[in-house]
Amino acid sequence: MADILSLHDAVARYVDNGATVAMEGFTHLIPFAAGHEIIRQGKRDLTLIRMTPDLIYDQLIGAGCAKKLIFSWGGNPGVGSLHRLRDAVEKGYPHKLEILEHSHATMACAYEAGAAGLPLAVLRGYVGSDLPKVNDQIKFIECPFTGERLAAVPSIRPDVGVIHAQRADRQGNVLVEGIIGVQKEAVLAAKSSIVTVEEIVDDLGATPNACVIPGWAISAIAVAEKGAYPSYAYGYYPRDNRFYKEWDAIARDRDAFQAWLEENVLQAGGEV
Amino acid sequence: MSSHYTSSEMMTVTAARALENGMTCFVGIGLPSEAANLARLTHAPDVVLIYESGTLQTKPDVLPLSIGDGELCETALTTVSVPEMFRYWLQGGKVDVGFLGTAQIDRYCNLNTTLIGDYTAPKVRLPGGGGAPEIATNAGEVFITLKHSKRTFVRDVDFVTTLGFGRDGKGRDGVPNIGKGPTRVITDLCVMKPDPETRELVVVSLHPGVSHADVIEATGWEIRFAEAIEATPEPSANELQVLRELKARTDRHHAGE
Question: Are the beta carbons of B86 and A104 separated by less than 8 Å?
């Protein structure tokens, strides 16, 4: 059964320097509070996996936590670039960042394969794309039944999967509602998992086909109220689109980013 | 150009008209989303809009800023996981048309959203492929909409993120289980379609007030024009009103949060 821990203790226990970490949430339920705790604890040399790096990985990369990034779409949705990611890729600041990029379909399939315990994912993908030329993890195989040429990539099996959800019950069972992305897959594919939640309740109130992750399939639960802000939690608070727009100016400038990080992450929150 | 609408409105309305009522459309964020929702609010009320965040048959009241805004989920028939979206609905052949934008496009409709320059030392790093590589090959056909300029319309893209018809126009030939690919490109100047033989883009329709020279000036290769070139119909008063109300609602919504 999942241990119900403080966010500090959950991150300290499960996120080691050099770990492969998948923090998922497709625009919705992005685990920002957990990301900030990783920054505060000064984790280094992480391999970060996420379909859409979004602001959360822009912050982790800018803070110097990442060695490598595996992703499929690295922009600020509807706004433009992730400037800390670009600074790392284009200028090697704060240090060089190795990247491995896929398409969304591939990463979704690779998470699913990871959750299914398979070594690889197979899809009808990358036809005519240059991506296989720059990503040696993309191969092509022949279907043994039809002879069709299909793309194959290794499954995603992170050391730790981190997601945010609306709520858990006292046994650590978790309900995810709304855009569920690849959150369930990220937890089940990982060796360990941390789920932050808005609240812990007596009864999840889940309907029969709801997306529920059993507590015995999760390593740790931590309460993090507004833990997905500035992304959103369906039923709790909306996405702060204005902050996503403001982030462009903050992240564009190294000093402005550092000042933001100091005030809003390093000197904030982090109750032990 | 007539002064009662802008070239951007002309582009959006023309792109919207490409969608037929009842089509199932996998929608990219930005201009395609604006056009697809305008279509839904005007001539195509039963168009089925699908976004890669898993929102199936969604009817947003305001345009989403991101591909996963709550608005998309709250107004959807149902919301599925992202693996299900790409595997069952897109790869499974349930999508008639993929509607995409891009940073760069070339004469064979190949799209680049990865980077400008060399891969190991990029001049400009762009967001990457996202859903596009598989939308472009697994959807029945593809519409593309973007603003026309020499910077975006290049002879050969720096990087083929997403297949149009390949470097030689033959990229889909003999490939099993692949969609038709791009069937039209809608810009703020004109509409283009691939030549049925060579697959090179040809201008088939000029927007009101736009000259051949305007298009030539804004295109990075020697663009060809169809022999019987058409004049794109102007936006109707209703289309303009619905579009402007949609954008005003959207601006208020995103500024208020």
Answer: yes
